[in-house]
Specification:
Layout (H helix, E strand, L loop, with lengths): L1 E7 L4 E8 L2 E4 L10 H11 L3 H9 L6 E3 H10 L4 E4 L6 E5 L8 H6 L2 H8 L5 E6 L3 E2 L4 E4 L3 E15 L2 E15 L9 E2 L6 E2 L4 E2 L11 E8 L2 E9 L6 H9 L7 E5 L4 E3 L7 E6 L3 E9 L1
Parallel strand pairs: 6-17, 8-13, 9-20
Antiparallel strand pairs: 1-2, 1-5, 1-14, 2-3, 3-4, 6-7, 10-11, 10-17, 10-18, 11-12, 15-16, 15-19, 19-20
């Protein structure tokens, strides 16, 4: 199932599920104890029931406030209307993949500098801490670029949602990274942590509804001044599976209960400029559409 979070003009938040195509039903309006996706995950962890099974049980009570998805998307884009889509969840922390998790052809491998070859050929996944969830923005909010970077890129990625060390859902979004202004060995180290350094799509999808997350079409477009500046497409192929990636993160640490990890830059473009609109869309999941601002 696909899970969305909606906030109306009164400030009320709803966890909603797409029970039928294009139509969302608020689980919160049926059972007030279910305020966000974390509540479903907690209930699943305690009971041993699947997240979707719990949602179906709640829906079986009948009723529930209903929303039209296309209308919510339009209201969210324009800032008008009675409600809007927000980030589908609030993770405690975020991680992001670095060089080394994408398939590299032998021809390209020959052209890579030695540090990049080490990252690609190594057994360990290269992952960076991307900060607490307070840096995350929703599907229609502004992402940021720092004033101390020469080049900032947008990367569209498969996002794995981790609860108590296991993947419980997938999403997509924009992972923003830039090269730091330093003429030293760390010149090319990505600047990962800042306000608006990541966005999350309109929804999260459970593995039950997305059994194969690693063979999906993903696309990224950048629009500047009403004209298309970049258009990239790819397939969610990884050198290391999402489960392997998560094991590298949790294997030597005990992260907070709810975390997300951007599994690697499957589509990327830049440099970004203030006012650019970045859209990332993942087949079978959803999309994020974010405007760039200076932070």
């Amino acid at each position: 199932m696909r899970y969305y979070r909606i906030r109306n003009n009164r400030g009320d938040a709803h966890l909603a599920v797409e029970a039928e195509d294009g139509r969302l039903t608020s689980l919160t309006s049926i059972n007030e104890e279910v305020g966000d996706f974390r509540d479903l995950l907690r209930a699943s962890y305690i009971s041993g029931q699947g997240t979707d099974d719990i949602a179906r049980h709640i829906l079986s009570a009948g009723g529930g406030e209903s929303f039209d998805l296309s209308t919510l998307i339009e209201w969210s884009r324009s800032g008008s209307g009675d409600a809007r889509l927000t980030s589908p969840l609030d993770p405690d922390e975020m991680w992001a993949g670095g060089m080394g998790n994408l398939p590299v052809s032998p021809e390209l491998m020959e052209t890579l500098p030695e540090p990049s070859k080490v990252a690609v050929e190594g057994d360990r996944a290269a992952y960076f801490y991307k900060g607490t969830g307070s840096r995350l923005v929703g599907p229609f909010d502004n992402i940021g670029i720092r004033s101390d970077t020469e080049r900032t890129s947008a990367e569209g990625e498969l996002v794995a949602v981790i609860y108590k060390g296991k993947i419980v859902a997938y999403s997509t979004g924009v992972e923003v990274a830039g090269g730091l202004l330093a003429k030293t060995w760390w010149y090319s180290v990505p600047s990962k942590v800042f306000k608006g350094c990541a966005s999350l799509a309109t929804c999260v999808v459970t593995p039950e509804s997305l059994p194969d997350a690693t063979s999906r079409k993903i696309g990224l477009t950048i629009t500047r001044g009403g004209r298309e500046e970049a258009n990239k497409e790819n397939t969610t192929e990884h050198r290391k599976s999402p489960d392997d990636i998560v094991q590298w993160i949790v294997g030597h640490d005990t992260p907070p209960d709810l975390s997300i990890v951007y599994t690697g830059g499957l589509v990327a473009a830049g440099p970004l400029e203030v006012g650019d609109v970045v859209r990332v869309e993942l087949e079978g999941v959803g999309f994020a559409e974010n405007t760039v601002e200076q932070v």
